[in-house]
Give the backbone structure.
Amino acid sequence: MDFSKLNGLIPAVVQDAHTHEVLMVGFMNEEALAHTRRTGLATFFSRTRNSLWTKGETSGNRLEVQRILTDCDDDTVLLQVTRLGDGNVCHTGARSCFFTELEGEST
Amino acid sequence: MDFSKLNGLIPAVVQDAHTHEVLMVGFMNEEALAHTRRTGLATFFSRTRNSLWTKGETSGNRLEVQRILTDCDDDTVLLQVTRLGDGNVCHTGARSCFFTELEGEST
């Protein structure tokens, strides 16, 4: 993997392996990816806390990794996961972090 | 949208609106997002060329945007698209950029 483009980080897209919903996007450094592969639980690098965090370590809503796919440039990963716990991935309690639609033309 | 976390960029995940495949991840600056919303065609910011690029502008394999969803932190977008042209999104000619599975435990 190429971690050089984004100061040691790569985006990690999380997709439900069963429903194919896109659930969240996190960032991984090399250690987070290695930890994810070793444990089978999605683990990211928190840019705000400057440390690794395993998704669901407090809520119990962990993400069990079924497959990891890399893109053609080797600088992004796609995690296909099974949701554990109550299955709500977002910290707001929603199933997915992507629940707001951008409407209209202005930003 | 919050463009401050990644030097003016946000990740943009592209998902087929019909099959729900994750096709690619690009980056957008504010201008790329505004251009995408105005034209309805997925447009990214190229970090290597330091300029906007509309996906498919040379290949014809443009991405017609059906919906744009933002995540709970307002720092990532999910584009749900219809594939135009021959429908192959990756520059390698593959349908999706995510065609390589990471096997085993080592990085």
